TrEMBL record:
Source organism (scientific name): Empedobacter tilapiae
Biased composition range(s): Polar residues: 7-20
Record-level GO BP terms: dGTP catabolic process
Domain HD/PDEase: 55-259
Domain of life: Bacteria
Any one GO molecular-function label of the UniProt entry: dGTPase activity
Protein encoded by which gene: dgt
Entry protein name: DNTP triphosphohydrolase
Length: 455
């Protein structure tokens, strides 16, 4: 398939020519690991609020685990492509030795655009503009307004990875176009959202990054579906990144709930055993025998979690291979994990549905989760109310307290010479980039709940 020779590139949006023993794709991974945006994920909630001495996942540990699964998928798919398709010598080298680095790096930064408090933070940002539509909408174009009232972590990831902040290096993290294309789950602009279609359920770039995204798409030969508003078909690598994420959060959230006592150990063990048996009945006896040798409850669940992830990874790769030609042509329309649910044995669908149902009822709607989501919503809303109104005013029209509010915002986020939209996006860069702890602390100080000097 000729297209396979043109859907990747080691080119970057901006880079210096330097000699390096690493490949361009390995450099992507390292740049993400060492970035401040990635480090901040350690204090961003995954599902559960950080509960003190009980270890559960945060956004950073989740991203590392997704990256590990993605690397495995990349290795398997690279082997499949090189053994089954005619390729140029350069492409043979890429799929054999580098595709796993691209998938791994993309997985590593797939959540890098998520604001503090997760989806609650996204909702708070979107709702703030929706609630103030009468006052704020006249400042923006229709497309810009759609960005704000539908604020999306996926689009924010592209912004973080490509945006040049004041006083910072040009081109953001300067990743390869291949890695950037691999995280674009929803390759359309906000006005093209359509929840009935998987690749348009949300949107993938803000108006401020529209030209940058078009360049990413063109450099990696993404298939243009519509040019006004802009809609692309998903890049073939996206499906692997999405599957790695889906596998990890669906399994690991259940493991965390067991550690916190939300789900009984025996119930958790039974769920995972049923999943292992449904995916590969030949392994169940060996799995049960291994469990007998493990006395620690958490370790037993960890072993079953690893087995479950491994089997779901293998199944996802199998689905990807079976539908590969459709995926490359942009004709595939179903997430890999959903295909596993619908096309494997009925018992697998039943088990996965049970895990999903349990997660919704007992994890995502657990009181501690709801409390942090509601608190986070209020914190983010209040912070926006402090910074958005003054940034929209001309500097000479700002009152003293508004000027002082903006002095709390670091200089790299203030685009005073930009449009109203650019100014607001700078504030959103600041607020959405906060960790849960920092946002909460700033909120408490602004509201006068805590008063005192900090250095």
């Amino acid at each position: 398939m000729e297209l396979l020779n043109h859907i990747y590139t080691n080119q970057r949006s901006n880079t210096n020519n330097t000699s390096d023993a690493r490949s361009e794709y390995q450099r992507d991974y390292d740049r993400i690991i060492f970035s401040s945006a990635f480090r901040r994920l350690q204090n961003k909630t995954q599902v559960f609020p950080l509960p003190g001495s009980v270890f559960v996942h945060n956004r950073l540990t989740h991203s590392l685990e997704v990256s590990s699964v993605g690397r495995s998928m990349g290795n398997l798919i690279g082997k499949f492509i090189t053994e089954n398709y005619q390729l140029t010598k350069e492409s043979q080298e890429f799929y054999k030795y580098s595709i796993h680095d691209v998938i791994s790096a993309a997985c590593l930064c797939h959540d890098i655009g998520n604001p503090a408090f997760g989806h609650s933070g996204e909702d708070a940002i979107a709702s703030y503009f929706d609630r103030h539509e009468t006052d704020l909408k006249p400042y923006f174009t229709e497309a810009e307004w759609a960005d704000l009232i539908n604020f999306e972590g996926n689009a924010n990831a592209i912004r973080i990875l490509t945006q040049q902040q004041n006083g910072k290096s040009e081109g953001g993290l300067r990743l390869t176009y291949s890695t950037l294309a691999a995280i674009a789950k929803y390759p359309c602009e906000s006005v093209a959202k359509d929840k009935s279609q998987l690749h348009r359920k949300k949107f993938g770039f803000f108006q401020a990054q529209k030209e940058a995204f078009i360049t990413i798409a063109e450099k990696t030969n993404m298939i243009l579906e519509q040019d006004s508003p802009i809609i692309y078909k998903r890049h073939p690598f996206v499906w692997l990144v999405e599957a790695a994420d889906d596998i990890c959060y669906s399994i690991i959230d259940v493991e965390d709930s067991q550690r916190l006592g939300i789900i009984d150990h025996d119930k958790c063990r039974k769920l995972f055993l049923n999943l292992v048996e449904s995916l590969d009945p030949s392994q169940i006896d060996k799995t049960k025998n291994t469990l007998k040798s493990i006395s620690d409850k958490n370790d037993r669940i960890a072993y079953l979690r690893a087995k479950s992830i491994n089997l779901l990874t293998q199944k996802s790769v199998e689905v990807y291979q079976n539908n590969f030609d459709q995926i490359v042509k942009g004709e595939f329309k179903t997430a890999l994990l959903d295909v596993i649910k619908n096309e494997t044995e009925q018992v697998t669908k039943k088990v996965l549905d049970e895990i999903q149902r349990f997660s919704i009822e007992n994890i995502y709607n657990h009181r501690s989760v709801l409390e942090i989501e509601n608190a986070g919503y209020n914190v983010m809303s209040e912070l926006l109310s402090q910074f958005i109104p003054p940034i929209l005013k001309d500097e000479k029209e700002r009152k003293t307290f508004e000027k002082k509010a903006l002095r709390l915002v670091p200089a790299q986020f203030l685009y005073e010479k930009g449009t109203k939209y650019q100014k607001v996006m700078g504030i959103l860069d600041y607020v959405s980039g906060m960790t849960d702890n920092y946002a909460t602390e700033l909120y408490r100080r602004i509201k006068g709940i805590e008063i005192g000097m900090t250095i």
